[in-house]
Structure to design on (81 residues):
């Protein structure tokens, strides 16, 4: 069973539960679902923008490179033959 089939079954199950609601309740539900989707889209856009923000440090590129190099630990031991 694929994801699409599972989603279809879930949606059909919800529709079975909702078919007895009044038209005004259905419209209210549609409105709330629409707001929820719009909120999710805004959150995703904000997270995308945050992921590609500028580097926020006072350290120059050369200082950063030196910091990374100095923090490296080498534990390689050369064995005698």
């Amino acid at each position: 069973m694929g994801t699409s089939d599972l989603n279809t079954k879930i949606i059909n199950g919800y529709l079975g539960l909702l078919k007895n609601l009044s038209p005004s309740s259905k419209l209210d539900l549609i409105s709330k679902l629409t707001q929820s989707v719009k909120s999710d889209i805004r959150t995703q856009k904000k997270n995308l923008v945050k992921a590609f923000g500028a580097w926020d440090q006072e350290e120059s590129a050369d200082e950063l490179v030196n910091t990374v190099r100095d923090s490296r630990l080498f534990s390689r031991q050369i064995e005698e033959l």
Notes: The mean pLDDT is 87. Helices lie at 3-18, 23-51, 61-71.
